[in-house]
Design brief:
This protein is mainly beta. The chain has two helices and six strands. The longest helix has 17 residues.
């Protein structure tokens, strides 16, 4: 039972790593490490920039955490009329409607997975941009296969401002 509750969180974390939810290493401003100076002792400066370097507090270390996560995660409330069913042959289909009730266009990502216990039987990733006040149907056919109708289907939804 516990593994089933962890699946949406695991999918959400995987989704966060793929959705560009934070600044990457190339855009981070890291301060240079102290270097040897004319006198040869690290961190001591005798050149013209000595006064400038003592006026500033050291920059905090770069963070690998995403930016404002309040707008990026937990958009499951935008997914309506969802269904995830297995056919008699064990082929799974997911469908639902994304509803954007905000005042700006959003790009939604729906991650859906079918599991039996902790084993993932199949998954799908659906990305859809929805204009403000509009809705869009989403569909993933035959994204997982199980024996008969065994399995649990769980969607996770994130939203970002559309570009």
């Amino acid at each position: 039972m516990r593994n089933r509750r962890l699946l949406p969180a695991a999918l959400l974390l995987a989704l966060a790593g793929c959705s560009g939810g934070g600044a990457g290493p190339a855009s981070q401003n890291a301060s240079p490490a102290p270097s040897s100076t004319e006198s040869g002792s690290p961190g001591t400066s005798t050149g013209p920039s000595a006064a400038a370097s003592t006026d500033k507090a050291p920059a905090p270390p770069p963070s690998s955490e995403p930016g404002d996560v309040s707008t990026s995660f937990n958009a499951i409330d935008a997914l309506r009329n969802q269904s995830c069913t297995a056919g008699a042959d064990g082929s799974w289909t997911f469908m639902g409607t994304l509803v954007n009730s905000t005042k700006s266009a959003k790009t939604y990502t729906v991650a859906v997975a079918v599991t039996i216990g902790a084993a993932v039987q199949g998954h799908a990733l659906i990305t859809e941009t929805v204009q403000a006040g509009k809705s869009a149907d989403v569909l993933a056919r035959d994204f997982a296969r199980t024996t008969g109708r065994a399995g649990t289907c769980e969607p996770v939804v994130s939203a970002e401002d559309a570009q």
